[in-house]
Amino acid sequence: MKIIADKNMLLLNETFGMHGDVQLVDGRQISRADLRGADVLLVRSITRVDRRLLQGTSIRFVGSATIGVDHLDTAWLEANNIAWASAPGCNASSAAQWALAMMWLACKRSNIDFKQQRVGIIGRGNVGRRLEHLLKALEIPVMACDPPLQASGVKDLVSMQDISANSIVSLHVPLTRDGNHPTEALLDSKFLNSLKPETIVVNSSRGRVIDGSTLLEQLQSGRLRAALDVWPDEPYISRDWLQSTCVATPHVAGYSIEGKQAGTEMIYAAFCRRFAMAAGDPPKPQLEDVIVHYPTHAAADQVLQQAIQSSCPVERDDTALRAASSPGNMANCVKIDSLRANYPVRREFKSHRIEARPETEAAQLRELGFKTE
What we know:
Blueprint: E1 2-6, E2 21-25, E3 40-43, H1 51-54, E4 61-64, H2 74-79, E5 83-85, H3 92-109, E6 119-122, H4 126-137, E7 142-145, H5 147-151, H6 160-163, E8 168-171, H7 189-194, E9 200-203, H8 212-221, E10 225-228, E11 236-238, H9 239-244, E12 247-248, H10 257-274, E13 290-293, H11 300-311, H12 314-323, E14 333-335, H13 337-341, E15 352-355, H14 359-368, E16 371-372
Parallel strand pairs: 1-2, 1-3, 3-4, 4-5, 6-7, 6-8, 8-9, 9-10, 10-12, 13-15, 15-16
Antiparallel strand pairs: 11-14
Helix pairs in contact: 3-4, 3-11
């Protein structure tokens, strides 16, 4: 079996490599010629998979190690008898933790106390639910809005109007253009104009779920603030955007090692079901916990913030993005592909062990997902 895979995916040899010849390619550059004689295509969100790419090829299975599927033309795949799978929830903890770290840093840079804010979450799926849990563990008031869940009968949700009253609004929705609840430009000019001045907009879902031109205008005027991990014109980000946001990272919210491994494992399981193969238990690299020690006199909030930033180095990635060089003659933008491809190892809260803290602090750290001693 010939398998074409994005070169930046993890555990390919340990999983798919047991069943065929895995050939690694640049996900941004995958072409129909690369797929000649191939049976399986494995991608991330940067590869658009549709008729233009696959028509006339021998591909029988497409796996995307991603939460979202807006880059897959699933209707065309199904109409052409090509099985497909994604990995919903694979990096949800990573993305939720990153959003938390982004909003804390945004508050710090805005000279406001994060612990005194109110957060409105739009989208209470895999990521939104986890973020809601983290905020409650920090005793930060939080509410959630999710129109599809509300339509299905879920009761403890609020309206978009209710969300607009919060000092922080965080987006965790897929990018959809059809159905009863499309999310493209969900945060339109009407909603953005309804936000209170100095509201912090946090987005780690997809860039185009916000009306970009209106948001940029509001940021440049100073009326709103933003902490963004996703952008409307990826892989390019204009320097106008970077100059206007208080926190900026290069679409890496879900880039933990744990999340990447889970993404490959989930589509591998779907691949084995499709071809009636025994999946077995693929070996994974054994990674040691990250040990973090703080002096006993360190303030509790300082320990919390530093523990979160140790796992989610938002400030480091913000600095790297703002310092990135411009591609070719495009002086007014940066390209994020190299930052993502060469991203340092990042571990989730559960892989961090916090030592020597009083039990009251340790209990809160455990509630967030950290280990304590």
